[in-house]
């Protein structure tokens, strides 16, 4: 099993050597525009916007995992869900967003944990609309939940991910909760007649 | 080193890409027909596979060739899938099935964590092609197929795999090895 | 000693306004406009926009310094590349010593050299420039929010807090 510090080093190394960098403001403004446009398109139905963001993230995750595997040179699976969490936080988030969220609040069965984001590059400059609802309903960075769901599905883990707090809403922290639902079995080839 | 053929199987066990490389002599003989009509001939049900490309003008029944090729792919997948499962059962989950060899050819296998399976058939003297398959995955598959925004995520029926960059890159890479 | 700060959009529409007083030399940071002046300030600022439009083409600078004067009100302007104007109305104490009568002559001499009492001095120009620069930086950040549209009123409380801080720091 890969130790936490080894995962950090791996993330750091990939970030330094194998990642093409892009202007962060370009990313922030692009993502912000997408969210704002969704809010407009769905008439500020924030529940629906959250859903759409999650869906977009899911489709990104399905592809992004391949890039992750290629860049991290992963040749074997994580031994358990705790190791998976380490790799998500210290390698995945590191190489794609250059942040390392803190892993915390494990349940005793090691099937649920939280990622606490000390910084969130997607949310720089963002001020939620003050229509009295966005603060309670919109999860601005919800795309990240979808990304994790999609990426983990490709490596045979069905998970559920959602935000439970966000500094944009005035909470003290930005926290995402991730629960492992099940490991997905290999698909079997169809029986030949 | 001679490389005979190459296959990619997705997580739904479907063959989403296959390519055959003919030895120069057979290719010349098959020149009037398109190279794609060449295929691997499987023997009887005992699973012995002979790799004599059935080149030559006498083989013109493309439909049966196509069926044959897809049968081959299914057979190969069945074989590597069973072997991989057996390997894991005996050697533990971290053990990996890498290759097997017959009197005629050697089959190399590489599986990604996302359940993509890469298979390559070469002559018997070839050393491990695992790193080659890994290179194909990270340098060609991820770059040209996964990162192509127009390609679908799931490649049902090989959809979106056969783009020019991937085909060209693969052909160059493999020919560079031979 | 009072200031009135406003941001004017490209359609000459107000985006943001804030009244404050000096925090230097024992100032309480409160604006001391009377009710009538409050309403007047908006007109004064608005009428100075004509002058801004004349001056803005005469030099390539963003900071146009004090561009207008209306009785005892001095107006400084900072214009952004996107033609948004940051305007500061600056009202020194109407009669020297009048505002600080309780503190005696010593206080009034000291305040006579202060930024607040000398709207045209180089130090004041510099202080106002610093204030504008900081306000502009924060304005840019506020408008980078994806939910902000051009020429929309800035209601962001964080932005307001930062302008308040800049006012306290420089003026």
UniProtKB/TrEMBL annotation, chain A:
It is found in: Endoplasmic reticulum; Golgi apparatus, cis-Golgi network. The keyword Electron transport does not apply. It comes from the Eukaryota. Keywords: Endoplasmic reticulum, ER-Golgi transport, Golgi apparatus, Transport. GO terms for cellular component: endoplasmic reticulum; Golgi apparatus; TRAPP complex. The keyword Transport applies. It holds the Pfam family TRAPP. InterPro entries: Bet3, NO_sig/Golgi_transp_ligand-bd, TRAPP_component. GO terms for biological process: Golgi vesicle transport; macroautophagy. PANTHER family: TRAFFICKING PROTEIN PARTICLE COMPLEX SUBUNIT 3. Belongs to the TRAPP small subunits family. BET3 subfamily. This is Trafficking protein particle complex subunit BET3.
From TrEMBL, chain B:
Signal peptide: none annotated. CDD domains: TRAPPC1_MUM2 (cd14855). It is found in: Endoplasmic reticulum; Golgi apparatus, cis-Golgi network. Keywords: Endoplasmic reticulum, ER-Golgi transport, Golgi apparatus, Transport. The keyword RNA-binding does not apply. GO terms for cellular component: endoplasmic reticulum; Golgi apparatus; TRAPP complex. InterPro entries: Longin-like_dom_sf (IPR011012), TRAPPC (IPR007233). GO terms for biological process: endoplasmic reticulum to Golgi vesicle-mediated transport. Its main location: endoplasmic reticulum. Part of the multisubunit transport protein particle (TRAPP) complex. Belongs to the TRAPP small subunits family. BET5 subfamily. PANTHER family: TRAFFICKING PROTEIN PARTICLE COMPLEX SUBUNIT, TRAFFICKING PROTEIN PARTICLE COMPLEX SUBUNIT 1. This is Trafficking protein particle complex subunit.
UniProtKB/TrEMBL annotation, chain C:
It holds the Pfam family Sedlin_N. One of its GO terms (biological process) is endoplasmic reticulum to Golgi vesicle-mediated transport. One of its GO terms (cellular component) is cytoplasm. It comes from the Eukaryota. This is Sedlin. It comes from Lasiosphaeria miniovina. The lineage of its organism: Eukaryota, Fungi, Dikarya, Ascomycota, Pezizomycotina.
């Amino acid at each position: 099993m890969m130790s936490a510090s080894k995962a950090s080093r791996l993330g750091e190394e990939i970030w330094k050597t194998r990642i093409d960098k892009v202007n962060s403001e370009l990313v922030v403004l692009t993502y912000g525009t997408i969210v704002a446009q969704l809010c407009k398109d769905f008439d500020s139905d924030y529940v629906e916007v959250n859903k759409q963001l999650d869906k977009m993230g899911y489709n990104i995750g399905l592809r992004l995992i391949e890039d992750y595997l290629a860049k991290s040179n992963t040749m074997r699976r994580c031994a358990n869900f705790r190791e998976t969490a380490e790799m998500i936080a210290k390698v995945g988030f590191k190489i794609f967003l250059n942040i390392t969220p803190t892993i915390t609040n494990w349940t005793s069965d090691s099937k649920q944990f939280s990622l606490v984001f000390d910084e969130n590059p997607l949310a720089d400059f963002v001020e939620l609309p003050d229509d009295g609802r966005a603060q309670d309903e919109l999860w601005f960075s919800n795309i990240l939940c979808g990304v994790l769901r999609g990426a983990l599905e490709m490596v045979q883990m069905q998970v559920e991910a959602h935000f439970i707090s966000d500094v944009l809403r005035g909470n003290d922290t930005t926290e995402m909760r991730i629960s492992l639902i099940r490991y997905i079995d290999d698909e079997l080839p169809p029986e030949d007649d | 080193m001679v490389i005979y053929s190459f296959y990619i199987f997705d997580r739904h066990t479907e063959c989403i890409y296959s390519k055959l490389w003919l030895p120069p002599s057979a290719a010349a003989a098959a020149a009037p027909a398109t190279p794609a009509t060449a295929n691997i001939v499987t023997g009887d049900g005992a699973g012995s596979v002979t790799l004599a490309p059935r080149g030559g003008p006498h083989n013109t029944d493309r439909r049966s060739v196509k069926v044959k090729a897809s049968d081959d792919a299914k057979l190969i997948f069945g074989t590597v899938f069973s072997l991989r499962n057996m390997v894991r059962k005996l050697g533990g989950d971290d053990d990996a099935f890498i290759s097997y060899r017959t009197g005629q050819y050697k089959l190399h296998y590489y599986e990604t964590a996302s359940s993509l399976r890469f298979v390559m058939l070469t002559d018997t003297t070839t050393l491990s092609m695992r790193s080659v398959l890994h290179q194909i995955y990270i340098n060609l598959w991820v770059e040209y197929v996964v990162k192509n925004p127009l390609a679908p995520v799931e490649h049902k029926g090989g959809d979106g795999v056969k783009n020019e960059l991937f085909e060209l890159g693969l052909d160059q890479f493999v020919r560079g090895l031979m | 000693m009072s200031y009135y700060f406003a941001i004017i959009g490209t359609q000459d529409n107000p985006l943001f306004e804030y009244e404050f007083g000096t925090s230097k030399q024992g100032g309480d940071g409160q604006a001391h406009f009377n009710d009538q002046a409050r309403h007047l300030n908006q007109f004064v600022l608005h009428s100075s926009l004509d002058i801004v439009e004349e001056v803005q083409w005469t030099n390539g600078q963003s900071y146009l310094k004090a561009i207008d004067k209306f009785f005892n009100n001095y107006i400084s302007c900072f214009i952004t590349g996107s033609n948004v104007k940051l305007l500061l109305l600056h009202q020194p104490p109407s009669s020297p010593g009048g505002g600080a009568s309780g503190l005696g002559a010593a206080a009034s001499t000291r305040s006579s050299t202060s930024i607040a009492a000398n709207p045209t001095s180089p130090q004041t120009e510099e202080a106002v420039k610093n204030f504008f620069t900081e306000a502009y930086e924060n304005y840019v950040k506020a408008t980078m929010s994806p939910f902000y549209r051009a020429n929309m009123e800035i209601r962001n409380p964080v932005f307001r807090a930062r302008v308040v801080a800049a006012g306290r720091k420089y003026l």
